[in-house]
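Checklist before submission:
- one chain only
- standard amino acids only
- sequence pasted in full

Submission:
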Amino acid sequence: MKRGIILLLILLVGLTAVILRVPNAAFGNSVILGPIGEIELKTTLPDSPTEVNLYRVVGDESIEGIGNTYPDYGKVRYNLPSEADAVKFAIKALERYGGLPEDAVLSKVQTEYAEVIDTDTGKVVDREPTLIRVTFKRCINGMPVIGPGGKIVIYIGDNGEVVDLTKIWRKLEYAGKVKIIPAKEAFEKLVKGEVMMKPMGRLKLKVTDVEMGYYAAGFGKKQEYYTPVWIFHCKDHLGNNVTLAVKAAGGEDF
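Returned file contents:
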């Protein structure tokens, strides 16, 4: 009987040691299991500033759609401009909305296609161009803005026609400094699933880069301040990009 008790104690001690090692392992190449799935840190956590600038929202400039009819995103188009010219058409289209903001950064230019898939093999057998999507994102003093807001998306069609345009660009003013948590603490929150915009389902993620930035809400969302966040750039098991954000202002509800 005593031998059984001793063996049980040894097992419990061993299990406790494994549990206690998990937080430390999170900062190596070990895979950590959390509420949002498996997370593996594949980069160095950056040195943390003690505080960052805080910005208050003092106005809103939002545009959702520019036409009276729903844009035909899937229509095949044969006279699309080059992607370089599509950017020029996009910037030209913004002139009637105050022009391209000074803190806008060209983020992505992508030609979109309608694809024909062989239902037997699941392979793409043909594809035709439909639109060119031009995306600008916001960057405040070198720090990126993520989230549904803080971006401009323009769809360019045949001969440079603007098929659709959306813009969320809140007017901001400096509101002082705010203290932030270290990147290490933010990673611990990530492992616990304490993220903004939680992903659907459980994922297998490798964290490839970590940086400080701000979060902007989408259309129709009231936002008094731009939320300081730690941004975790990840890759899932299929190689897709996944971006997760953890609130960085310690003890503050922004």
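Reviewer check: The chain has two domains: 28-52+176-247, 61-169.
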